[in-house]
Design a protein that fits this description.
By secondary structure, the protein is α/β, with parallel strands linked by helices. Helices cover 37% and strands 17% of the residues. The protein contains nine helices and 13 strands. It starts with a strand and ends with a helix. The protein binds NADP nicotinamide-adenine-dinucleotide phosphate. NADP nicotinamide-adenine-dinucleotide phosphate (NAP) binds next to helix 1 and strand 5.
């Protein structure tokens, strides 16, 4: 395949760094945008931005990662969450159609009917999940493609992601509370990024699919296995039941893409 110009939105985010590396590793050119950095630093909610990006950067395909991704931020400002997670996704889809692959989340589900396949009905509990589900629908109406991701982990210089934040907490000698009653299918961000690059370069690929990690585990089990593998202090881990009505209890995904590494191999790389 000839090298493509791949525009990565949200390039400064946790997943964005992994995606940029995966784009280069696959022999393509990575063009980047984020709010405050990248080849073009833009607010994707501004009018006319999709056309301006198309003209300035001339991407062949677009991997749309940018999002208001923290649950609490979305609850605090639902209209901003809808603007970033739904309206901006639609604006990009209007411009790029099937050349846009937008990522979504397992949190579009309510956690009562896991494991979830890509065609199962969404039922979000939080503003974040709702805004992402709306973004999926509005982007798909213009022919864009959607990949739902599970909880991601992996090293991060800013302590973002499920494992880097746990590592930072334990290394500071602080207690880490982990939910034994929240189940996910976690995936290393590097594996997610490699799969996303394979998918984005094929605009004829499926319109909606799930990328899932290799095992269904609770947040508690994930944290314990990660900490044990890296010689971190297990005595600082504390199981705490999740009572938050905004957090679904089991959003394990049935994956549509083969992930070859085991969870233990991913955690070793964590
Ligand atoms: N991390 C996970 O576990 C996980 C799980 C499932 C799905 N996802 C999805 O994966 C994607 C990436 O997540 P992440 O964890 O990498 O997120 P993140 O670390 O919060 O990064 C968000 C990115 O979006 C950019 N952004 C936010 N608002 C913007 C706006 N109005 N205009 C332009 N750029 C904007 C940010 O730019 P600045 O840095 O300049 O503000 C940043 O680059 C998101 O769509 C998220 O919903 C993530």
């Amino acid at each position: 395949m000839p090298a493509l110009r791949i525009l990565v939105t949200g390039a400064s985010g946790f997943l964005g760094g992994y995606v940029q590396s995966a784009v280069r590793a696959a022999g393509h050119e990575s063009l980047t945008t984020a709010c405050r950095s990248g080849d073009a630093a833009v607010d994707l909610t501004a009018p006319g931005i999709a056309a301006a990006l198309a003209q300035a950067l001339r991407p062949d395909v677009v991997l749309h990662l940018a999002a208001m991704s923290r649950l609490a931020d979305c609850e605090r400002d639902a209209s901003r969450a809808r603007a970033v997670n739904a309206a901006a996704a639609e604006a990009l889809a209007e411009r790029f159609g099937a050349r846009l692959l937008a990522v979504s989340t397992d949190l579009v589900f309510d956690g009562r009917h896991a494991p979830y396949g890509a065609l199962d009905p969404v039922a979000p509990l939080s503003v974040y999940g709702l805004s992402k589900a709306e973004g999926e629908e509005r982007a798909r109406a213009h022919g864009a493609r959607i990949v739902r991701l599970p909880l991601l982990f992996g090293p991060d210089p800013h302590g973002r992601g499920a494992s880097a934040s746990l590592r930072a907490t334990l290394q500071q000698g602080q207690v880490a509370s982990l939910f034994p009653n929240e189940y996910r299918t976690p995936l290393h961000a590097a594996d997610a990024a490699a799969a996303l690059v394979e998918l984005v370069v094929d605009p004829a690929g499926p319109g909606l699919l799930h990328l899932a990690g290799p095992e269904r585990v609770s947040r508690w089990e994930l944290g314990r296995r990660f900490a044990a593998r890296h010689g971190l202090r297990l005595d600082l881990l504390q199981p705490v039941e999740c009572l938050d009505p905004l957090r679904p209890r089991d959003v394990s995904l049935r994956g549509d893409v083969l992930v070859t590494r085991s969870l233990d191999a991913m955690l070793a790389d964590g």
